[in-house]
Amino acid sequence: MPQSTVWQKSSFSGGGDSSDCVEVAATQEALQLRESDEPDAVITATGAGLAALIRHLRP
């Protein structure tokens, strides 16, 4: 039986029930990211790949 994905809202997203938020979910294989206003568009990355992206994007 497939397990449902549990999404968590990023602490850097808009407050309350704002629609401008990034959500993340962890599976055994990878991390998944999506925007709450486009829930079907999911980006999949490894932990190392996501950490490298964040290091690259931080000023």
Write the layout of secondary structure elements.
Elements: E1 8-9, E2 22-26, E3 31-35, E4 38-45, H1 47-57
Antiparallel strand pairs: 1-2, 2-3, 3-4
Description:
The protein has 59 residues and is α+β, with helices and mostly antiparallel strands. Helices cover 19% and strands 34% of the residues. It has 1 helix and 4 strands, in the order E-E-E-E-H. Strands 1-2-3-4 form a 4-stranded antiparallel β-sheet. The model has no long low-confidence stretch (mean pLDDT 84).
Kindly summarize this structure in a few lines.
Helices cover 19% and strands 34% of the residues. The model has no long low-confidence stretch (mean pLDDT 84). The protein is α+β, with helices and mostly antiparallel strands.
Distinctive features:
34% strand, 59 residues, 4 strands, alpha+beta, globular
Outline type: globular
Main structural class: alpha+beta
Q: What strand order characterises the main sheet?
A: 1-2-3-4
Number of helices: 1
Query: What's the N-to-C terminus distance?
Result: 43 Å
Report strand %: 25-35%
What letter string, H or E per element, gives the SSE order? EEEEH
What does the radius of gyration come to?
A: 12 Å
What oligomerization state is this entry in? single chain
The largest β sheet comes out as:
4 strands, antiparallel
- Poorly predicted parts: none
The proportion of residues forming helix, as a percent range, comes to 10-25%
Tell me the total number of β-strands.
4
Average pLDDT taken over every residue: 84
